[in-house]
Write a structure and sequence with these properties.
Two copies of one chain form a homodimer.
Chain A (H helix, E strand, L loop, with lengths): L3 E6 L3 H12 L1 H8 L3 E7 L16 E2 L2 H6 L5 E4 L6 H11 L3 E4 L2 H18 L3 E2 L10 H8 L5 E7 L2 H13 L3 H10 L8 H4 L2 H15 L9 E2 L7 H9 L2 E11 L4 E11 L11 E8 L3 E8 L3 H20 L28 E11 L4 H11 L4 E6 L7 E8 L2 E2 H12 L4 E10 L7
Parallel strand pairs in A: 1-2, 1-4, 2-3, 4-5, 5-6, 8-10, 10-17
Antiparallel strand pairs in A: 7-9, 7-11, 9-10, 11-12, 13-15, 13-16, 13-17, 14-15
Helix pairs in contact in A: 1-12, 4-5, 5-10, 7-8, 13-14
Chain lengths: 438, 438
């Protein structure tokens, strides 16, 4: 049987891991595929660094275009990342009729509709398991396993940096800043952590998953995004007292002819399995009309786990090539002509449970004023708690609500914030509870 | 594109669920596959029962052979179960060149080597995701996702009946008998629960998974099996005091040129995610050299979750048929010629941590006698606890050990059991702990 030739673009952390598996586990892979996968060329700007792998002479090159244009290469694996040169190289590879594996969530979330269309028209495959959840097989599960299900909802912890930081604040009472520094020192967070801590990386992944789950065009722009930089140890502590942990969640819900897609810090009860997913780990629960709830859990980042997903994609495409079954599974889970623009529900229209924390002067009638305003906006209070001690003349009041509409909540909180008796900006954290709609 | 014709054998619970999805979600499936999956014929001994589905006239038949021999049928879905007629029908379908989907773990665990060989020789596909873990995509994960990994170990809760019973004893302090009756009343346990509670069903599943993980022939006979019928509320309570829950686990470990495969009640620490998998749910963790640990969780049984897995298998085979890619993935994960007979390590050779409970007379020197015998057999004690009150003249002594060899443990316990000061049979429960070998 013919060997499959692979060209790798980008030999940083994930690229090195991928090369390691393809070279050191070549026999294992070949005993499963029935033929050898040959890592023919690797393009990187730095070809001299010691990567701990013995490459054959001439494998490493700085000439990425040469790899993409190499007529002997069957599959291009793009691990450069970002939306610049990676996009040009992928489109050129597609245009050259090569099949593509990528881990580039930022690129797919922002330019996926163009890239998938190009691949479809050219009749090549594009695999992207490593773009969401590292080694967790969520893409394959949505594209293949759940093929007979209508997806009701997906809820995931999809960013290891944020989960590491929140776990640190929760378990070690660190401040956000200290937890972030530690994440950086341990290599879990980038020098510029904005994409991670502001929820943007999570949104990239949610945009991809929502498209696969509901058969919709990729839509990053309409995802509501809130990061974790304003989460305080105080709210995490109060959450714990009510039986909740705070996680940065990607939430996506099927609302018939609309979808909800949002990323924000969320309280989830201790008995939700996701609340036990700590440190840099990722997990995602999917609810489908036939399967009920399933959960997939694993390392969402890191050299070898992500490389494992890249290799499984590469093998998938190699198997398609060997059996002449290109595009055996449609790129975005549904046949191209079935993919619709499904509108995203504006965040103001969502219904959920809320946690509020107000810093108020310790005076009579404070509670009646606040609850009056909430009542005016149709927000029904489930419980009120005067928590903790007076600090700088004010005391914290915490409220949990029944299901309430986001629009009313925003108006009420803005009115409450303007009261003289209320100090600081009110804190709002959404709760994903048993009574939350699927 | 050509329609794919399906013949269904057995229309009980899972069969009815499968028919429901194929009929009621026909458009959804077709928008993903690009062609219709047509449920052409269904064979069952009872064709008159109301199944809540509207079948076209002539679809239901009592003539299973007629379905298997129907030249227009492409894929046979076997949901009869058991090792009798199901085996004959599957072999006949294979011989007729039809592709086969089955959920029949008992059959595959006992006769898989013959059946897979027949399918390989005839060049047909055989899919069996629903045979292990219901809707949990563990077969696809082992065959496809982890293709670049050496599997170190797998640990799973694979039987919903046992997990339901153990959860009931743990959370509601039920006796084993009451928990079993409740499981039967709720439809989680069969009238004859032997296959489930004695661990045999779990062993069937472990035999299949071990073959896929390590590239070995299916070997049911050498799996060490211990059921849950002797687990008492007392041991569950003591386990809780040490920070453990008791679960019936399927454990499989790669030991180089041997494998460990065993099924027994096991103590696992609270912070192991598996300890939070309760009720009738299933989960499995897989440890691979690249991925680290992943966990998959979901309904391991039940009409619609299992039917969801059957449908995804059926779609997989339909896609292979449509793209001419039969046997794109080797049946047992490795190419047939790479599959080896890997010996199973006798249970006496395993090393693990143990919990012992002895009922002893409340006399001096009891502890020194028992610990002396354990020491003679090289068993090092981690902690000793005199637990609970005197009952019928004896008191319970509980011990936790460091890593110890099973052979020595058995000899020591047999010597200890014969002491006059020891009443009742000593209790032994294995512990899967952080220091357990992968």
């Amino acid at each position: 049987m013919k060997e499959i030739n692979i060209g790798l673009l980008g030999c940083g952390t994930i690229g090195t891991g991928t090369a390691k598996i393809l070279i050191e586990s070549k026999d294992l892979i070949s005993s499963r595929v029935g033929t050898a996968l040959n890592l023919k060329r690797i393009a990187d700007i730095d070809i001299n660094r010691d990567r701990g792998i013995k490459f054959h002479e001439g494998v490493l090159t700085t000439d990425a275009l040469g790899v993409v244009d190499d007529p002997e290469i069957d599959i291009i694996v793009e691990l450069i990342g970002g939306e610049g040169i990676a996009k040009d190289l992928i489109l050129r590879a597609i245009n050259n009729g090569k099949h593509v594996v990528t881990a580039n969530k930022a690129l797919l979330a922002s330019h996926g509709n163009v890239i998938f269309k190009a691949a479809d028209e050219k009749g090549v495959d594009l695999a992207f398991e490593a773009s969401v959840g590292g080694c967790i097989p969520i893409i394959k599960t949505l594209r293949e396993t759940l093929v007979g299900n209508r997806i009701n909802s997906m809820i995931g912890i999809l960013n290891g940096t944020c989960n590491y930081i929140l776990s640190k604040i929760t378990d070690d009472k660190s401040s956000f800043e200290n937890a972030l520094s530690e994440a950086q020192a341990n290599g879990y967070a980038e020098a510029d952590p904005t994409l991670d801590v502001e929820g943007i990386d999570t949104a990239h992944k949610l945009a991809i998953l929502s498209s696969l789950a509901y058969g919709m065009e990729i839509n990053l722009n309409d995802i509501y995004i809130e990061g974790i930089s304003e989460i305080t140890p105080l709210d995490i502590e109060f959450a714990g007292q009510f039986g909740y942990r705070i996680k940065l969640l990607a939430i996506s819900k099927n609302r018939g002819n609309k979808v909800e897609t949002r990323v924000h810090p969320t309280m989830i009860p201790f008995d939700n399995l996701l609340s036990n997913v700590n440190g840099a780990l990722n997990a995602i629960t999917v609810s489908g009309d036939a399967v009920g709830n399933i959960m997939l859990y694993g390392h969402g980042a890191g050299m070898m786990p992500t490389a494992s997903a890249v290799v499984s994609d590469t093998v998938d495409l190699a198997r398609n090539l060997l059996s002449g079954a290109i595009k055996r599974v449609p790129l975005l889970s549904y046949q191209m002509e079935s993919i619709k623009k499904i509108p995203v529900m504006p965040v103001d229209e969502i219904l959920t449970n809320y946690y509020f924390r107000f810093s108020v002067l310790d005076q009579p009638k404070v509670l009646s004023k606040i609850s009056g305003i909430l009542g005016d906006h149709g927000i029904s209070i489930k419980s009120v708690h005067q928590k903790g001690r007076k600090s700088k003349g004010s005391v914290p009041i915490v409220m949990l609500t029944h299901l309430a509409g986001e629009a009313g909540v925003k108006k009420a909180l803005s009115e409450i914030a303007s009261l003289e008796i209320v100090k600081d900006k009110p804190v709002l954290i959404r709760i994903e509870d048993k009574n939350s709609q699927d």
